[in-house]
Fold this sequence. Notes:
The structure is a homodimer.
Chain A: H1 4-12, H2 18-30, H3 34-41, E1 42-49, E2 60-62, H4 64-77, E3 78-86, E4 90-91, E5 95-106, E6 110-123, E7 126-133
Parallel strand pairs in A: 1-7
Antiparallel strand pairs in A: 1-2, 3-5, 4-5, 5-6, 6-7
Amino acid sequence: MINSGRFLAVVFKKVMTTNEIAARLVDLCRKGDFETAQKELFAEDAISIEPYASPVFEKETKGLDKILEKGHKFDSMVQEMHTLEVSDPLVAANSFAATMRMDVTMKEKGRMDMAELCVYKVKDGKITSEEFFI
Amino acid sequence: MINSGRFLAVVFKKVMTTNEIAARLVDLCRKGDFETAQKELFAEDAISIEPYASPVFEKETKGLDKILEKGHKFDSMVQEMHTLEVSDPLVAANSFAATMRMDVTMKEKGRMDMAELCVYKVKDGKITSEEFFI
Lengths: 134, 134
């Protein structure tokens, strides 16, 4: 009985729709707050997939903890973010996409202006995978 | 020398940009003319990837000829297309996405209203893969 409040909270917690998740993700990414987006919207066993493996990032990163680490690593490589633009999302039933443009100066590589197509899969109100296309 | 005209035509043939390919694909799909889109815009070795394998379609279809066959098979299953809506595309450097909504009556399965996120990869002015997400 001591946990009945929590039990009810769990039972009645509203599962976010794909539209709601897409809107929240775009909102947070526009603010550059990728970490909140990941902690709030990603499943514990989510997967992050790069266009290709590089010396910096593996092709696939599995698990929210490793995805957060990947984010910290990226942040540590950034000298200055000049522009960050995120499109409105295109939303299907259990997936959505948005483009993200970054004009950024990296500590090692210098300034680059890049756009990626970001595709997300959703299950049970959480993002289960993100995949980036150049 | 006899082929010099053809040689020049090949050399100077303009490679379509990703923006141009995306606009043309969306235009043709809105008319329901998927076959022209595939013949005109897809690479010979293009791949088509479904969300999952089904009794009707394999997870992956390889090669333009097989993709055209897949289209004919789908067409043969359709009783009536009530609505076909294709979004404007989101375009990155070598990829783009659009959502496609079909309200369609299938001969076996009856009427269904479905939306898919369609993601395309581009190389050398041709679509090299299409992937559908539900």
